[in-house]
Design goal:
homodimer, alpha/beta, Nucleotidyltransferase, domain 5, 8-stranded mixed sheet, globular, binds adenosine-5'-diphosphate
């Protein structure tokens, strides 16, 4: 059965019609630069690509364009059994995917404080989809849900306790849907039930996070209240001395918001390299002798390895370190550099296997030892599609 | 030979006359609450204690009171061979202790941007001591110096590179003098040259830091540009999601400086427990069933253990984890809780030894295994005295 998966970002809308059993995508595409003059939407179907300019440049008009396009393919619309929405922040309320009703919609809105750029966009997608397809069950799948069983000593920050109680300041973690998918895949590939595995999942994309997964549950993760914390991201700084913010505000005579924008948009791979937030560009420059690019990759791998060291604490033993996401699935260089630091955990690179696991190929990239390293491509959309089908079926069962 | 050691804090002045070979302190004391109406200075000599109120309430008047007191003991003054100053921030310039001259004094002033509360106070102490004892060599010993050999990939933050180049934003690390002392003691107690040891030193006082010491050099440490980063401190938060600052600024409608003050003064053990920044008070409350106090200790130990995991990356192997500082030297509870997480490194608590190593007693607190855990009391003042004697002797040698 087919699911329409919607991922409304702050200035983008990704969508796909997905076969929840095979992962096949008869239609997919993306609206980009929403809010700016050159907003456009791209549809990909049967290998063909079609682009439309968007006026007005809003999420709403992007969704309308998508609906109009879909209505031109009645058979495709007929085949849909649910619409699955990626929702960034589920706060402490949402511990798993849910069927959307008016109460849960309100609760997603209540979490907007925690993700002011993302949850409102997610809600726009939900409203537009309800209007266009009132007969279809709508499902929300949260980036944070997989981490909600984390123990309190892992999610609390050493801040005045009332900020947790009154303002919800705690570690939530993100990339949860990816971690859930990869955990299931790891269990399949390692041929052991998830309930017996201790994994560290390094999801390395434009945003990057590491999660310790113990017996199928997240027990700690490097992202926090926001997706800024943790390892080096494409344009975000990850963890830094929090004292740096006031220092920079004074030295540069800038406001909190201006410094915050630098930490989110001008830092990470981009800030260190001075070149790009794209790992490929930096690897090419490094190969051509660009010293700052070389140093950037060193810092990236070193901080990644340190995060693995941290996450060994809640795990105590490691079955597998799993690389996923754009960088994790493709950069044999970053993987090799990271494993160089991790010999003390019994990890030793298998260079040949490492070079082969790129562009979607899964495999083990370490030699036999106490622990293994793997590449396992993620598929958040497929996970959302599966959740949607399962919840839609459960809802129908209840109705019958 | 005797050294007058001065430690000028932002609102305090600690001082001691120390025998650099035995560590004996014929005179010691402290001026507190400088800048406030109830500023006072306490002298301890031969077991007797004498307190004086200070007017004006300045560092300068505290130093004058000390000089006046000293001049009442001409034999003691005669025995001094040097004055040693603790200086918090040596920036990238100072890689070891130095004899103070006008050039280096200017350079210490140049580092004031990096430690606006501390370096100016340190300079006041230096100026007053020069005026009172112009004939004595003055030595500066820096908290940051021991960390200056750290590699670039460990000290650079994933921020725009020009903030390092133009504003000095990097990891400096602190507690360096303590680490240097403890490293030498560890070599003595483990009966192995420092050049062959891999240590993690957990200096746990009101401020807390962990340092990876490889072959006698700091290779990474948890404090950063400022002493705010890293593990849980008495009133400071340590590492948090940097995104929390803008979040709190918005939710509480506060300025960067107001939030910064909360991170430095209302967080850490104090903020989490809601009780005190004093570990003893929290341990007592926890023993009496206070749940928030229990959780505070759990978080403290968990974050400490995670920092050990991180610092395993640059070390690759661990000879000894060393506890020092007020909490490290006295809290068998925190040590036990921390080691509970570290079994995978081959560390196993020796409960009996752990209970015995308190109030200045050094010893091994782990059972035989790959790695050992030790308690080694620190003595920063003695280290400063030794540095001062060594530099004064070298200077005299040059003159002769
Ligand atoms: N062959 C490759 N080598 C190195 N990095 C790659 C390669 N292919 C993609 N990447 C990197 O993957 C990152 C994007 O990851 P992705 O998971 O697609 O991001 P997002 O978080 O936006 O979903 C970019 O930094 C890109 O440079
Ligand atoms: N017996 C004890 N048990 C637990 N903590 C202790 C004990 N004695 C001292 N401490 C703690 O040591 C800390 C102060 O450490 P210290 O190294 O003296 O601080 P500073 O960083 O100011 O030099 C306080 O939190 C105090 O509670």
């Amino acid at each position: 059965s087919y699911v329409l998966v919607l991922n409304c970002g702050s200035s983008s809308l990704k969508f796909a019609v997905i076969d929840a059993s095979t992962g096949e995508q008869p239609l997919s595409g993306m609206a980009e630069r929403l809010g700016s003059d050159d907003a456009e939407i791209v549809f990909k179907q049967n290998g063909a690509k079609q682009t439309q300019a968007l006026t007005p440049h809003t999420h709403k008009s992007a969704l309308q364009a998508l609906v109009t396009y879909l209505l031109g393919y009645p058979a495709l619309v007929q085949s849909l059994t649910a619409i699955g929405h990626r929702v960034v922040h589920g706060g402490e309320h949402f511990r798993e995917a849910i069927l959307i009703d008016s109460l849960s919609q309100q609760r997603i809105a209540d979490c907007s404080n925690l993700a002011p750029l993302h949850n409102p966009a997610n809600l726009l997608g939900i409203e537009a989809a309800q209007e266009a397809f009132p007969q279809l069950p709508q499902v929300a799948v949260f980036d944070t849900a997989f981490h909600q069983q984390m123990p309190d000593y892992a999610y609390l920050y050493p801040l005045p306790y009332e900020y947790y109680r009154d303002l919800g300041v705690r570690r939530y973690g993100f990339h949860g849907t990816s971690c859930r998918y990869v955990t299931a895949e790891a269990a399949r590939l390692l041929n052991k039930p998830a309930a017996e595995l201790k994994l560290i999942i390094a999801h390395l994309g434009n945003g990057a996070s590491l999660t310790a997964v113990k017996h199928g549950h997240s027990v700690d993760t490097t992202m926090g209240l926001t997706p800024l914390e943790g390892v080096v991201h494409g344009t975000r700084c990850g963890s830094i001395d929090p004292g740096i913010i006031a220092y920079l505000a004074h030295r540069l005579n800038k406001s909190t918001d201006e410094i915050d924008a630098i930490l989110w948009k001008k830092s990470g791979l981009l800030g260190l390299s001075g070149l790009s937030n794209d790992c490929r560009t930096i690897e090419e420059a490094a190969a051509n002798g660009h010293e700052q690019a070389q140093l950037t990759l060193e810092i990236y791998a070193y901080r990644l390895a340190k995060a693995v060291g941290e996450l060994m604490i809640p795990l105590g033993r490691l079955d597998a370190l799993v690389f996923t996401g754009g960088i994790g699935e493709n950069s044999s260089l970053i993987r090799a550099r990271t494993l160089d630091w991790l010999g003390f955990l019994g990890l030793q690179l298998d260079s040949e296997a490492n070079e082969q696991c790129i562009r979607g190929k899964a495999g083990k990239i370490s030699q036999n030892g106490h622990a293994a390293a793997w590449v396992i491509p993620t598929n958040e959309e497929l996970m959302i599609a599966r959740d949607s089908v399962a919840l839609a079926a459960a809802a129908q069962g209840e109705q019958a």
